[in-house]
Amino acid sequence: MDMSIHTPPGAGAPHDQGSGTRPAPEGGTPPQQDGAPAPRRTVTHLGDRVFRGLSRGSGITLLVIMAAIAVFLTYRAVGVLTINEGNFLTSFQWNANANPPDFGIAVLVYGTIISSVIAMVIAVPIAVGIALFISHYAPRRLATPLAYVIDLLAAVPSIVYGLWGALVLVPHLGGLYEWFDDFFGWTGVLSYQGGAARSLFTVGILLAIMILPIVTNVSREVFLQVPKMHEEAALALGATRWEVIRMSVLPFGRSGIISASMLGLGRALGETMAVATVLSPSFTIIVSLLDPGGGTFAQNIASKFSEASEQGRDALIASGLVLFVITLLVNGGARAIIARRKEYSGANA
After folding, report:
1. Which of 8, 23, 85, 109 is found 20 to 30 A from 184 (Cα to Cα)?
2. CATH number where 196 lies
3. Helices (H), the chain
4. Tens digit of pLDDT for each residue in 258-267?
5. Nearest-5° angle of CA 277, CA 283, CA 284?
6. Are residues 238 and 114 in the same domain?
7. Rg (CA), the chain
8. CA-CA distance, 272 to 137, in Å (whole number)?
9. Which residues contact 268 (CB under 8 A, 6 or more apart)?
10. What is the pLDDT of residues 41-59, one digit of tens each?
């Protein structure tokens, strides 16, 4: 019996077993190394292209809107600024309807910045503490309803806060102001002459209550993104709960806290109705934070816009341009701080 093995035609062609390459096909493509991954072709799906185009278009649209706002404010402000009789930055009066007009923004800059700083000093530490309590201390049965209440506070309209501040907050701050005057009145900044507590300090307290939910919610979400391995490693090394927060949670969430604070500051800078309801405006710079008086950009625009002439409206728009620039500078500074500490962000952890 013939036991020889018959091979098909062409199967016995010489093949270099040691070279590790496949013979080149008839098309002439170069041989592939055995075990080497074949080159992959990047296939862009239609949905990816549409999403990328929409994202790019949204970003460009946002920049166009910002540029359009800046151009509009500048165009309306330049004309009235050229005929302004007083010093725009140092004048302590507002006669924008006069001919020629005489108005300044020094009082508005002072009132806006002071009330916003007071709000930030009060709100940010409390908001961070609440966020840490919800995310790391409170049991789930308490954390969930507490977070829900904080979310509801963020949805309350500003006019409701203003009415509450005028009817409840203002009448009950007299005792606190007298205490400040007794112990810190010698500074001049916290002296109190009596009367209704419609001052920049009251505005700062009200703004702190308004921005508290914003800072709390953003900070809470950032703290919940801290990698569990970091916290568990610190606990395994014998760290206490506070040491875990100080060494792992707060460094990781630092940029998020700054971002949350800037969101709250943006609302404090531009708040209108609540400030107009509580503040007793006067176009002077009040050294004492407890005495009635002062003013902010948003409050001044809201109170004077309806009765202003065309020239007066241009003057109000000029003050709005200054507020626009201040907001851009504040947000730019915040972005610079966040960029320097980007190693703590969740995206780079």
Report:
1. 109
2. 1.10.3720.10
3. 46-82, 106-132, 140-154, 158-164, 174-184, 200-224, 228-236, 241-244, 250-270, 273-278, 297-304, 310-340
4. 888 988 898 8
5. 115
6. yes
7. 32
8. 36
9. 115, 116, 119, 120, 207, 210, 211
10. 666 778 888 898 999 999 9
